[in-house]
Design goal:
about 290 residues, alpha+beta, Alpha-Beta Plaits, 3 domains, 7 strands, globular
C-alpha cells in the first residue's frame, strides 16, 4: 500500500470525524500495521503539504498536520460515494460538457482523470456525459482554463447509452473480484497484511478494515455512480456493497478504539491488543443500501 493513499484513507475514514488533524507520531504509528514505514509517511506528508492537502499545525502532543479546507471537502464528497450515504434520484436527464481544445498534454490528462473521477464518460475527445451535474467538474475546467459549454439531453434508451459510455462488463467483473478478495481478507488476514493480524484485537481489526476500505475506495475512480435504472440486472456491485457495509461496520468499533489509543499515545507498542475507551467520536455508522 502506498503511503500517500494510506494517509488519504486514514484521514478520510477516521481522522476527518476527529477534527481532521493528528500528530506526526500518531500518523506513523497508525500506518505501521499496514507495512508503511515512518520515512515513507513523512515523505508523503511533505508532498501532500506541497499539493495543498495538508497544513502543518502545532498540537498539544507535538507537531502535526491538518486537512486543508479543499481536502476536507474532497474527503466529505468521497465519503458519500464510498459509504453510499446519499441516494440520488435520477430524472432521466443526461448532463453533457463540450470542451474547447486543451493545448497542454498535462492539462488534458488532469481534465480526463478529473472528469472520470467525478462520474463523467468521454463520448469523444471533446464531449463528456454524466447522469448528474457536478459543480466540482466546472471548477476543474475553470482551474485548467478550459472553455466549455453545458447541455442537458434525453434519449430513447438511456440504459443502452450507459452501456456504450461505460464499460459496465469490466466494472461488474471488478466488483466480483473485489468481493472474492474481501471475503478472503476477512477469513485470512495474515495472507494479505504484514505480521499476524487478528480481528479479535483492536490493531488487527484496524488493519483489516483499512485494507478493506483501501481496496473499496478504488471504485471512486471507476464507478460513475449510475442510478439503478441504468445498470444491468443482477448487478454484482449490489452484493459487493452489502458485504463492504457489513464487514466495515462490524470492524469499526475495534478499529476506532485503536485510532483513539494512538492519537492519545503514539508510543503504543506494535502488536498491542489492549483496548481503551474511545476518547473521540467514532466515524458515522455505515448505512446499508445497494450499490448505485
Amino acid at each position: 500500500m502506498h503511503a500517500r493513499s494510506a494517509l488519504f484513507d486514514l484521514f478520510g475514514d477516521h481522522l476527518r470525524s476527529r477534527g481532521g488533524r493528528a500528530p506526526v507520531a500518531a500518523l506513523v504509528r497508525l500506518l505501521a500495521p499496514l507495512g508503511v514505514t515512518g520515512p515513507a509517511v513523512r515523505t508523503s506528508i511533505s508532498r501532500m503539504v506541497r499539493q495543498g492537502w495538508l497544513d502543518p499545525v502545532r498540537l498539544p502532543t507535538g507537531p502535526g498536520y491538518a486537512l486543508t479546507r479543499h481536502a476536507t471537502q474532497r474527503l466529505d464528497d468521497a465519503a458519500e460515494r464510498i459509504y453510499r450515504t446519499v441516494e440520488k434520484p435520477w430524472d432521466g436527464t443526461w448532463h453533457l460538457l463540450v470542451l474547447e481544445p486543451v493545448p497542454s498534454r498535462a492539462a488534458r490528462e488532469r481534465v480526463r482523470s478529473g472528469l472520470g473521477f467525478l462520474g463523467y464518460a468521454a463520448l469523444s475527445d471533446s464531449t463528456w456525459i454524466g447522469p448528474f451535474a457536478s459543480a466540482e467538474a466546472l471548477g476543474l475546467l475553470d482551474t485548467e482554463g478550459v472553455g466549455h459549454a453545458r447541455f442537458t439531453a434525453r434519449d430513447d434508451d438511456p440504459r443502452e447509452r450507459a452501456a456504450l459510455a461505460w464499460d459496465l462488463d469490466a466494472l461488474g467483473e471488478a466488483y466480483t473480484e473485489w468481493h472474492r478478495f474481501a471475503a478472503e481478507l476477512v477469513a485470512d488476514p495474515a495472507a494479505h497484511l504484514p505480521g499476524d493480524p487478528d480481528t479479535a484485537d483492536d490493531e488487527g481489526a484496524f488493519a483489516v478494515r483499512s485494507l478493506l476500505v483501501h481496496e473499496w475506495r478504488k471504485f471512486l475512480f471507476t464507478d460513475p455512480g449510475l442510478p439503478a435504472e441504468l445498470l444491468p440486472a443482477d448487478w454484482p456491485g449490489e452484493a459487493a456493497a452489502r458485504f463492504f457495509a457489513d464487514e466495515a461496520g462490524r470492524l469499526l468499533p475495534a478499529a476506532s478504539r485503536f485510532v483513539d489509543r494512538c492519537l492519545a499515545d503514539p508510543s503504543v507498542p506494535l502488536g498491542s491488543s489492549a483496548a481503551a475507551t474511545p476518547t473521540a467520536p467514532s466515524p458515522e455508522p455505515i448505512p446499508r443500501r445497494s450499490a448505485p
